[in-house]
């Protein structure tokens, strides 16, 4: 089997808001098709957003509607990435623990409530 594209798809009640968020994070554009949006980056499909009118956001980490998948996004500059995702509508679910060596991460929710992490190597942030 040859896989042409690998796409992660999110359910959302507001697919316009959700697809704009991921297009902003990934530096892509939104291609709309009724109840399905595709975020395309450099001509390659990356994230799909499917209309789910009854979507209930997961309540991370232990709520009655638990997460089923999340993205880890490894970034070069955490402070810059944090500002960008917050401006796009993310909210912090769990602050970074403040590791002084190795790696660290901070947990966020996108506009539809799907958890994702910004991850980085701590040594990279001291340059």
Automatic annotation (TrEMBL):
Protein name stated in the entry: VOC family protein
Domain of life of the organism encoding this protein: Bacteria
Give start and end of each VOC domain: 4-121
Q: Which Pfam families match?
A: Glyoxalase_6 (PF18029)
Do you know which InterPro entries this protein is assigned to?
Glyas_Bleomycin-R_OHBP_Dase, Glyoxalase_6, VOC_core
Species of provenance: Lentzea kristufekii
